[in-house]
Amino acid sequence: MDEGVSAGVFPGAVTAMALEGEIVFQHAAGRQQDGPEAKSTMPVDAMFDLASVTKPMSGMALMLCIEDGLLTLDDHVAKYVPEYAVGDKASIRIRHLVSHTSGIQSNPKLYHEHEDWSTLLPAYLALPLVGQPGAMFLYSSINFIILALIVERVSGRKLDQLLAERVFKPLELDMTFNPPESLRHRIPATEYIARREAYDWGLVNDKTAQMMGGVSAHAGLFSSAGDLATIGAMLLDGGSRNGVRIMSPAAARVFTNAWTDERGARRGVCWLPGNAKVFGDLLGPQSLGHTGTTGTAMCLVASEKLVVVLLTNRVHPSRDNDLIEPFRPRFFNTVAAALTGTRS
């Protein structure tokens, strides 16, 4: 991590790791930010904009709805989103949304064409598919925008309220959407936005999530590495943490293990199947995880009861820095090597 700072991969970073239910390592490196207020030291409890790591965290809300008997993974999306009761869209199931096999277009930047969410959402829902549901993998945040709609409609709760009440508060976590001013000193700034002449600081960097008021299943969460490691440990320990049960062992097992789709490919429920390019040669092939464009990553290895979190501010001050791509698998390889000698 210190080498990453020196090489300009990111201004700063924090990692946290949990093994067999216990957080065994945390480390902060580098600078929290260079602007809008210079802060020279990255705190270990820094609250990062998680970007797409929000997706698996929001997936916990889906699993709670399944536990509550409100829906199933094989329900058709059109049952809850009438706009999808047409053509090929009518065959899309919730399982397709959470595995990016719905055939929905990959992140068209329609927010440039709309001034608020009231017109942007219908535009997203009206997009034609680019493939048959279940026939292809195509990563799209629109899958999770629709998932948030479904969760809110069946639960009667806003996504942020549901997660706070059922997950974050019971586990005493600071993880939150739209962080309050009291947490601002722990939040690294992200990208400098020239048209506003300001940084996204305490404001979600994702432009669609901004138009949604900062709350979505695809982006918007802020969290420390330690809180994410706690979530991961809870999930790999059967859905409970320090005597606090969040979900059933059955739900936790489904959520943290891969399944096989119609084409025989390995998929995850809101997680992406790990691979060597992202999570390294030693952990990648057996992991589930997710990354975020702000420079975040979280990896679960159920067989080892291992959780690895790497949060960075690589988009500060600009998202043009892509050095995180070759750095990340090297980082996860060193984590895997460090397991040597820790298990009997």
How would you sum up this structure, described in words?
- With 344 residues, this protein is α+β, with helices and mostly antiparallel strands.
- It has two domains: 1-50 and 221-339, DD-peptidase/beta-lactamase superfamily (Beta-lactamase), CATH 3.40.710; 54-176, DD-peptidase/beta-lactamase superfamily (Beta-lactamase).
- The protein is 31% helix and 16% strand.
- The chain has eleven helices and 15 strands.
- It has helices spanning 2-6, 54-67, 94-98, 117-126, 142-155, 159-168, 207-211, 225-236, 249-255, 276-283, 324-338; strands at 12-19, 22-30, 48-49, 176-177, 192-193, 198-199, 221-223, 240-241, 244-245, 259-260, 266-267, 272-273, 288-292, 296-301, 306-312.
- The chain has a six-stranded antiparallel beta sheet with strand order 2-1-15-14-13-12, with helices on both faces.
- Helix 2 (54-67) runs parallel beside helix 5 (142-155), helix 2 crosses helix 6 and helix 10 (276-283) packs parallel to helix 11.
- The longest helix has 15 residues, at 324-338.
- It starts with a helix and ends in a 6-residue tail after the last helix.
- The model has no long low-confidence stretch (mean pLDDT 95).
